[in-house]
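Database export, one record per block. Field names are fixed; values are copied verbatim from the stored entry.
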Amino acid sequence: MAVQDYIRQRFFPHMWCPGCGHGIVLNGMIRAVEQLGMSRNEIVMVSGIGCSSRISGYVDFHTLHTIHGRALAFATGVKLSQPELNVIVPMGDGDALAIGGNHFIHAARRNIDITAIVMNNRIYGMTGGQYSPLTGPGMMATTAPYSNIDQGFDIVAMARAAGATFVARTTTYHVQQMAELIREAVLHEGFSVVEIMSQCPTYFGRKNKQGGAVEMMKQMKAMTTPIGSKAKQANPELIERGIFVQVDKPEYCSEYNRIIERAMGGK
């Protein structure tokens, strides 16, 4: 299938602000699915509420646009009822780690075969530029006019600690790596987390005087480095990108089926 076959073209042009990174993520995800050669009927996309969650409206898969923070709960139900399907969940800061934080850690703990794509633009873009669990200290937001004092989550460390068996990070600048990491995540049998550092020039960029989308993407290039690079050794402040965790552990749906077989006396 060609790239355009995975898109609901009647819903374009999209509603994202000029320069938003979510369109780049959509492109990377579609490229990954195209490389895998999957049928549209093999994929279910589940999203909650937020700018990032609008991705589900633009793809021609089976889709569920659900309530805020509960995308992984709905996705768990879909996967348990139809385990042969590939379930992808695009999320933003709050959907994944604020109101949705509890679902995130337990989906990882269960190791259910779902791919969670977390778009980290460090702000609540849809509701007015409030600070999020990923904003970090010293940053400005509409709800932090004198700067934020909350520490931000490290998505990679959190996913790893919660039990996710595939954990990766990249940025919207590194488009080829993004498509490859999403492809690897979908192929992985277990709970997969791909953090994608993204730009929000409308709120985060403007509030923190980081310029437009081009300047913000250049900054993401400058502040990240491949895992284990010499640059990281020289400058520990750099953020690593790549695959941090990729291990095989019992997958939840498979284990659940074994319980059913046991309950039915092995029939």
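Remark 1: The two ends are 40 Å apart (CA to CA).
Remark 2: Residues 3-263 form a domain with the Rossmann fold fold (CATH 3.40.50.970).
End of record.
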